[in-house]
Amino acid sequence: MHITNSEDGSPSIGRQAELLGISRASVYYQPRPVDSFTLKVMNRIDEIYTKCPFYGVRQITNHLHEDGYLVNHKKVHRLMQEMGIQGLIPKRNLSRNDKEHLKYPYLLRNVPITKVNHVWGTDITYIRMRYGFLYLTVYLGNMKKLTS
Question: How many angstroms separate the CA atoms of 121 and 103, rounded?
Answer without folding.
Answer: 19
